[in-house]
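JOB MANIFEST
job_type = single_chain_structure
chain_count = 1
residues = 257
[input]
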Amino acid sequence: MKFKNKVVVVTGASRGIGQAICAAFAREGATVVGVARSDLAETGAAVQAAGGSFIAHNADLGTGTQKESHSVIAEILAKAGKIDALVNNAGIIRRAPAKDFSEADWNAVIATNLNSPFFLMQAVGKWWIETGRAKAPEGARLKLVNIASLLSFQGGITVPAYAASKHGIAGVTKALSNEWAKERINVNAIAPGYIATENTKALREDPVRNKAILDRIPEGRWGAAADIAGGCVFLAGGDSDYLNGAVLNIDGGWLGR
């Protein structure tokens, strides 16, 4: 019960990796705030079944605006009273050859995957530095966890906006850790490998790409959403207090190949 009496915010919480992350924190006793555009009833049931408390917060992070992200944090603080950890998991992907990639798809991916996570961290970091830290128990820390990607290090194929956004997430993680470590804020990221989610459905259904991917992964399988959740619990907990600016690869050995 490492997160008893703690509030953990998870974006993109309605399904897949986000839902698995919520359940993992619930098993450690957290009050979980799930943020998503779509219905959160299924995630709420999973959290309660795992022993946690759940607060649903519907919001569209696809706008990518500072105003929307700051409003989300303010509303969550009004509901929950505090935030001990934020997991920026919400993300989208658009696939097209670079020569045909549309402006609309580029802007949508950057807004959701890079702009919103930064502005959410900006808002919760500002709250912590100006108000939250003084009211927190002695030695308490704010934990910010970003979901990066293998494409924080690689270029991928036909996903230029996604690769750019995930390179950006790795950079922002390091930049904020440099600035905020002295404020008792840890900013780290997880780079999932190839995980069986809705975002990777097209790859798994392409027999050529699917085989090429599996042949490269030393574990020999696609990852499951639950494989990412344990890393989030580690980065949001006390065992990682001296870890800052790191991008933790959970990829079945892909990058080591």
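[summary]
The CA atoms of residues 99 and 185 lie 41 Å apart.
The mean pLDDT is 97.
exit_status = 0
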